[in-house]
Every structure is written in structure tokens, then in C-alpha cells.
Write a structure and sequence with these properties.
Helix content is 34%, strand content 27%. The protein contains seven helices and eight strands. Helix 6 (96-106) links the parallel strand 2 (88-92) and strand 3.
Length: 205
């Protein structure tokens, strides 16, 4: 952290030490007028999609200073970067607090194996998009805004939720007022991932 950032820099260093991982690689660009992490990630993902061959994609992924590598260096174990997936960067974390921290901080990608269900197996949690609170949006960004009661359900109650129905690409879970949905794929790629989960008794009218 640069010394001339003053009290804000000192506060970030303190947060850095108490959180147990470095956040400066993501936060510092905002403080010195450089493009934000999300701007860099959007540009990087566009270049990755435009790559014509596996060799070009590998070159981008190993390119010095690419935003995915920079972000992964901003965390100490147990949070690690594990390549790119259908939602963007794949993060891996060893505990639920780190799952939430990395997604809220990066605002992109997914944490693989964030949840476990005895009938479904491992389930990823994407950051997703909040949507409007109706039948749209998905992932943590939707839960944080529209269904904050999920924190009373995940991850402890999730394994005990029975499958109420199943289709070709989705599991519906329900026990009393608690309802959840898990997709089996994203853009054609097989992957169990949490769409949403909520307590109907706490839904706002």
C-alpha cells in the first residue's frame, strides 16, 4: 500500500491484516485512478471469448498482470483461483465465511463446491445478478438484496432440504416455508449451481 494514501491506506492495511488476506490488489487501483477490477475483468473476458485457439486462451490466462491472476494473488490460502468457468473466475474456499467474502469482494465468478447436498452432490454458488426480485436474477447478489434470510438456511440447513421435484435441468427443494432451486447446467455446461433459496414466511409483500 502506498504511503501517500494517508488514513484510508492505514485503514485498508488494518482490514487487510484482520481479514487474513490481501485486498490491496483489488482495492488499490480505485485509489490511484486506475481502471477498476470489474472494468479490467470485463475487458479480459471479452478478449478470452474472442480468442480463436486453445493456445491463445492459455496465453491470455498466463499473461503477466491479467486481472484474474492479480485477484488470486490478493488472497492467501484457503481462498484460491482455479481457472475460468461458465460464470467467470472459479474460486475455491475452505469455509462459508470465505465463500461469502470472495464473491462479495470480486463481484464476479463462482465458488465451486460451496455447498453439499446428499442427493445432489456438490453445488456451486455464483455471484450472479440480483434481478428485480421477481422470477429473475440468481446467485449471491440476488440473495443478499432480496432474500437475506438465506444466511439462516445456508449452509447448515441446505443438506437436509428434500428434493420436491426434478426436471431435466433443475432441482426444486422444499421443506415447509423454505424453498430453493439448483440448476444442473449453465449455458450447456454441466454444473450444479444454486439459483436461489428463501423462506416464504419472510418474503416481503
Amino acid at each position: 500500500m502506498q504511503q501517500n494514501l494517508g488514513p484510508l491506506g492505514d485503514a485498508l492495511q488494518d482490514m487487510n491484516q484482520r481479514a487474513g488476506y490481501a485486498i490491496t490488489s483489488v482495492v488499490q487501483p480505485h485509489l490511484v485512478g486506475q481502471p477498476s477490477f470489474l472494468d479490467r475483468m470485463n475487458d479480459f473476458q471479452g478478449r478470452l471469448l474472442a480468442a480463436q485457439t486453445p493456445e491463445e486462451r492459455r496465453g491470455l490466462m498466463t499473461e503477466q498482470g491479467n486481472p484474474v491472476t492479480d485477484a488470486s494473488l490478493g488472497f492467501a490460502a484457503p481462498i484460491t483461483f482455479h481457472g475460468m468457468g461458465p460464470f467467470g473466475p472459479i474460486w475455491k474456499a475452505d469455509n462459508w465465511a470465505d465463500v461469502l467474502d470472495v464473491l462479495r469482494q470480486q463481484k464476479t465468478g463462482e465458488v465451486r463446491n460451496a455447498l453439499e447436498h446428499p442427493q445432489i452432490g456438490t453445488v456451486s454458488l455464483p455471484y450472479g445478478t440480483p434481478g428485480t426480485g421477481k422470477s429473475d436474477g440468481y446467485g449471491l447478489s440476488k440473495l443478499d438484496i432480496f432474500h437475506p434470510e438465506y444466511q439462516e438456511i445456508l449452509p447448515d440447513q441446505f443438506p437436509s432440504l428434500p428434493i420436491s421435484s426434478e426436471t431435466e435441468n433443475r432441482y426444486q427443494l422444499q421443506q415447509g416455508n423454505i424453498k430453493g432451486a439448483v440448476r444442473k447446467e449453465f449455458n450447456g455446461e454441466p454444473l450444479n449451481w444454486l439459483i436461489s433459496i428463501l423462506d416464504e414466511s419472510k418474503r416481503k409483500p
